[in-house]
Amino acid sequence: MADRAVRVRFAPSPTGPLHIGGVRTALYNYLFAKKHNGTFILRIEDTDQNRFVPGAEEYIANALEWLGISATEGVVTGGPHAPYRQSERKLMYHEFAQRLVDSGNAYYAFDTTEELEAMRKRMEAAKVAAPQYNAISRGSMKNSLTLSEDETKKKLEAGEPYVIRIKIPRNEEVRFHDIIRGWVVVHTSSLDDKVLFKSDGMPTYHLANVVDDYLMNISHVIRGEEWLPSAPLHVLLYRYLGWENVMPQFAHLPLLLRPDGNGKLSKRDGDRLGFPVFPLDWQDPVTGEKSSGYKERGYFPDAVVNLLALLGWHPGNNQELFTKEELIEAFSLEKVNKSGAKFDPDKAKWFNQQYLRKTDNKELAKMFSIIVKEKSTGPLSSDLKYIEGVCHLIKEKAHFVNEFWDIGSFFFIAPDKYDETVIQKRWNPTTKDFFGKLSIELSGDIEFTHQNIEAIFKKTAEDNGVAPGSVMQLFRVLITGMAAGPALFETLELLGKQEVVARIATALEKLK
């Protein structure tokens, strides 16, 4: 196993939008494959046709593409093990189910829905804690273990509906090693005879995923904790099919928890908790219900990747911000925690803020210009160089690009009202006279740099017996309308002499 080439897979079901817990699973598979120069496969497990949701597969592919979690093989890229969609591979699974029946490790079950329900009721009446089709109850059911060989053959030849169930041994221990959790031991008395092959001709997840993992030479199965109870069944399938020597290593990831730690963060939580649980916007094709995504909320894909990487994995130091290359280098399954990781919406915003600050102003200007053109028709709305300067000044104040307008709309539209608290506290004949004189000084023949503006402001204040600190905030309000904002003198430089003088004149007129 040590010399085995690393081949991992992310195998979601197209039953709706991809939850961020699923994204994290894909990410960990991707990082592990990259770390070991391996192969990352995107496979679609659509054996349950009743739960298929139109558009879900495309959503999964688009979400992973946006996040830069690119597969080496799979439904998007193709590859040597195509097809990668289980519904297109369905003809191959019956062979393996039949092999299990022939070896005595599985059996045909002809029970009707009514007979299964009657069995459950009998077990409930007998005070059985978890009624299930298992080593005890199968003896009273209609299957090839209780029927004669001739009866079974007649039912099959007559085309009577059947399923194939695994025959779980009655009194054994199933042991396997999990990279994250260590040795896992499960007694077969807690397992039921799961259906492997359905009456509609489709395999269940359990058979299909084991067969596909074997045929695709998967070396490691990295998946969510919710699949841990199914792992003993999968181990038995590898054993019964004669593949135990090439069985992949398992790593079951911890759950993503709600912010309060009370339960798993689920798809149903959606916007109910005030933050997205999906990478992209999603609209249910049946109900029309809409759910928001991280992309449309304004998150950078690399920020989401960085955030998710640290929800369950710890690098062993205090580093929080990683490039994708650094994540690949540092990632290790041995450093993934066993316990669930609480999702922190505020921390998610913090991550995005860090990436926003690191983003080149030219790139931010391209993004912000789309909003500016929607909000303003002035000549500056198309001036990318000017917008770049605005981004430079306001990005420290924001978590998202879509917050820029609320913070810096005054760069494009002069204020028509002023912060009342500051005006009531600071506006008086003395300050009005000061700003009249300051306007004259700023109109002079000077280079309109923030250094010169600040020097003139301070000198004018001193010459008129005014403390610069007492009128600084008022100066900001007259220019921007707001009591707080980006660096004042740099703001004035960007606005330019003509605009600044004009705004002071407007304020002097309005605030008589």
Characterization of this structure:
The protein has a three-stranded parallel beta sheet with strand order 1-2-3. It has a three-stranded antiparallel beta sheet with strand order 4-5-8. It has a two-stranded antiparallel sheet with strand order 6-7. It folds into five domains: 119 residues, HUPs (Rossmann fold); 116 residues, Glutamyl-tRNA Synthetase, Domain 3 (Glutamyl-tRNA Synthetase, domain 3, Alpha-Beta Complex); 86 residues, Orthogonal Bundle (Glutamyl-tRNA Synthetase, domain 2); 43 residues, no CATH class; 91 residues, Arc Repressor Mutant, subunit A, CATH 1.10.10.350. 36% of the residues are buried. With 512 residues, the chain is mostly helical. The chain is built from 19 helices and 14 strands. The chain is elongated. Helix 1 packs across helix 9 and helix 15 runs antiparallel to helix 19.
Jot down its keywords.
512 residues; mainly alpha; Rossmann fold; Glutamyl-tRNA Synthetase, domain 3; Glutamyl-tRNA Synthetase, domain 2; 5 domains; three-stranded parallel β-sheet; 19 helices; 14 strands
CATH architecture field of the largest domain? 3-Layer(aba) Sandwich
DSSP strand content: 5-15%
The Cα radius of gyration reads: 32 Å
Structural class by sheet pairing and helices: mainly alpha
Number of helices: 19
Parts with pLDDT < 50 across at least 5 consecutive residues: none
CATH topology of the largest domain: Rossmann fold
Give the strand order of the largest sheet, numbering strands 1, 2, ... along the chain.
Answer: 1-2-3
Mean pLDDT: 95
Number of domains: 5
Query: Which CATH class of the largest domain is shown?
Result: Alpha Beta
Query: Biggest sheet: strands, sense, closure?
Result: 3 strands, parallel
Amino-to-carboxy terminus distance:
83 Å
Percent of residues in helices: 40-55%
Topology, number of strands: 14
- The CATH homology group name of the largest domain: HUPs
